[in-house]
Every structure is written in structure tokens, then in C-alpha cells.
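=== RUN LOG ===
request id: a7f3
mode: sequence -> structure
chains: 1
length: 345
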Amino acid sequence: MPFVFESIKAVTRPDYKVAVLGGGSWATAIVKILSSNLKYVYWWVREPEIVEGIRTLGHNPIYLNEAQLNSKRIRISNNMKHVVKKADLIVLVIPSAFICDSLSVLPENAFEGKYVISATKGLIQQPRLQISLFMHRYFGVPEDRLGLIMGPSHAEEIARERLTYLTSASCNPKLAEDVANLFRNRYVVTTLSDDMRGIETCVILKNIYALAAGIFRGLGAGDNLLAVFNANCYNEMVTITQMLHPMEDRKYALSPYLGDFLVTTYSQYSRNRNFGYMVGKGYSVQTILMEMKMVAEGYSAVSSVYHFNQEQLHADLPILTTTYKILYEKAPVRTSIHRLLDQLK
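=== RESULT ===
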């Protein structure tokens, strides 16, 4: 039997009309959570077949189809303007590579007076921005109306109602608490944080290092060596985060930092780890991109963070640099990784 909470403290659900934007596995898992707590959840997806599948079958026919959904509580549509207009609070779960294109149908004032919560674990490529900063600069969402819902979580385990811890982060304590209460149920525990920038940065970076760890594993590295490699990956992640968003008392050992890093580097469900594993096994990047059904956010993030480091940070980041050269400059995988071994500590 999976771990669940048999009883939960009485939770006062905030009176928001909530919309979820995105139709993939994680969006589906989030709709499952929210629809267990709210009378209605508004849901935008691009694909008409998903709309029809939810309405007729009660599950997403393309992504995470094992998750049974209460369709009576879901108002699903492929009309984004309609869905956004209905909601007070928007949970953004569109893969980062598609956010600009997807939101381009909306006017600049579409999010006026609304709260926007990012559950997207990626980076806008052009311009090179975190999701929350993109929403602030391009749609004018005030900082105190922005937040995150993050943490070590795979959609597949949410589908099975396996006990999961998520962190709600915002510079607005009331918003962070409200979002935590929206997501809390018998199999989801929520904690609070005001470190929105630090968590969002670590979420982007852990996908890069999970991909690197996958390459290592694909080449045949055992648990002993992989543990050393992952420790070095984690140190690079902390180095970058501290350079971008310095904080003396940030507790990197907690779940939204270390926990999310661990689940992404080790889990069989991690698409970033699996992407890297296929690279280590000799598949070309082009082949992997064609074969993967879901987006591996770490692939595009490698390029963005590498170039940002070259242009601005100038930090010594051998794992990031090696991963970039393997993926984007076709550097020989085994030779590159063996050279990297000499730099591990």
C-alpha cells in the first residue's frame, strides 16, 4: 500500500477560480490534485483529442492516461482566452519551449488582476528568462501575484496517489499559503517558501544535471561512481544559484533543492535522465528528440545556461561545459566523460 495521510488537518480552501494551462503529464497530474479539492477546475489544452478524451473517458488519452480524473469537476477547452478569462488564479504548466507561442494568442493585459503560479520546470529560451520573470516583464504580472509550485515530484506517482511533498513559493506569504492549501490533500503535503528565485533556478539546473547523470549511467557507470558524479553536479548547481541569487541562509539540503535534484537524477520516470541515458548509449540527439513523446527541459536549458555562463558568470563549470559540447558540438561522448573524471572531487 502506498503511503498516504489517513487524516489531514482541516484546510480552509481559498475561494479562487483556478485554471490550468497545459495538456501534458504534469498538467494532468496537477488537474487531478486540484479537482480533488475544488468544485471546478478550468483547463486549457491544445489538442482537441485530449478535450474529447477527458469529457468522454475521464482520462487524458495522450499523456498520463492512467490518471483517473473527475470529469464532472473539470471545465476543459482548447480556447485559451476563454479559460484565462474565467480564472482568478492561473497555474502555468506549458513546457517552456512552447510558452511564448502558446501565450501569443492573449492580449498583454490578459493576466491583469490575476495570480500566476508557475509549475513549469524550464527556461524561456528567447529571451533567456525564468518563467516568473517572463510573466512579469511581458505580461505585467506584479511580483506579489507570482508564485511557484515545485518539489520532487513525478506525474506518474501522483497518478497512483503516492505520497508527495510540494513547495509553494512566493514573495507574497498569503499567496504562498493559499496555493499550498489548494494543492494539499491526502497524498500531497505542501510546505511554504519565500525563495521563489532560488527554487526556480535550481529547478532549471537540476534538469541539466539529471541529463548529465543519464549520460554517465548510459556509459555504464555504477552506483559508486554515479554518487561521486552527482555530488559534483549538485555542487555546480549550488554554485550557479548562489552567483545568480545570493542567500546566506538558503537551506540547499531541503526538498525543493536537493530533493528535486535527487528524484530527477535517479528516477526511472525522469525524462531528462532518460534523455541523457540514450545519449550515453550512443543514440544521436536528433533521434532522441524525434522518439521522445515528452519534452526534456534540460536539453534546451543546457545551451542557455552554458552561453549565459560564457557571457556573464565566467564560472568554472566543467560538467555543464562537457554536457553542452556533447549535445551541441558533437564531442565524442566516452572521451569527453573520461576527461571529466579527472576533474571530479
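=== NOTES ===
The chain has two domains: 18-194, 198-341.
The first helix runs from residue 25 to 35.
=== END ===
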